[in-house]
Design a protein that fits this description.
Elements: H1 2-14, E1 23-26, H2 48-61, E2 66-69, E3 75-82, E4 85-86, E5 97-99, E6 105-109, E7 130-134, E8 139-145, E9 149-156, E10 162-169, H3 172-178
Helix pairs in contact: 1-2
Length: 179
């Protein structure tokens, strides 16, 4: 699986002239407040550390833009993150725009609904890489993509209210350097 993934990411990175974004979808999350200590380092509750050890280096190496994850029945948005640390270069003051991020952006979008309901935290940690967590609203995720802008919105299923929205922007300087 790792050999296949590396070849696929390598080919995608080489094809950025035609498809500028690399978006990974995976079930188990690498980063989640459900599976980390107070220091934000993943532990192996929900296999987070195993997932991180298996995939993070490849995601950084091939400049993955966005990682969509599930399994945990919450919504969690992270800053661009690498090696357990938020990489804040290019992050706007309102945390809603990431311009030319230097690490993947991770989102857990596990709030579509199911018989288990949403996960309830007793005393969740707040690691430096976490922008926000929502475990109160069932929702859908809408992704809008152009060659230079990727926007993700978390929309409450019952009301249509947008509870979170952010954009990843690739400036022309970044586009030119990848071509």
């Amino acid at each position: 699986q790792l050999a296949w993934l590396e070849e696929d990411l390598k080919a995608a990175d080489a094809n950025r002239d035609n498809v500028p974004w690399i978006i990974v979808g995976m079930h188990r999350p690498m980063y989640t407040i459900r599976s980390c200590g107070p220091d934000g380092v993943p532990n192996n509750d929900y296999e987070a550390r195993n997932v991180q050890e298996a995939f993070e280096e490849l995601f950084i190496k091939y400049k993955v833009d966005l990682v969509l994850q599930g399994h945990v029945h919450t919504y969690e948005r992270l800053y661009p993150t690498a090696n357990n640390s938020a990489i804040m270069d290019g992050v706007s003051r309102d945390y809603k725009t990431y311009e030319n991020p230097q690490a993947p952006v991770y989102v857990i979008t596990g709030t579509a609904g199911g018989p288990e309901g949403l996960f309830v935290y007793q005393d969740p940690p707040s690691p430096e890489w976490l922008v926000l967590m929502d475990n109160k609203h069932f929702s859908i995720t809408r992704l809008s993509v152009t060659p230079t802008n990727l926007t993700l919105a978390k929309i409450e299923s019952a009301t249509g209210i947008i509870h979170d929205e952010f954009s990843i922007i690739k400036s022309s300087a970044t586009q030119d350097s990848t071509q």
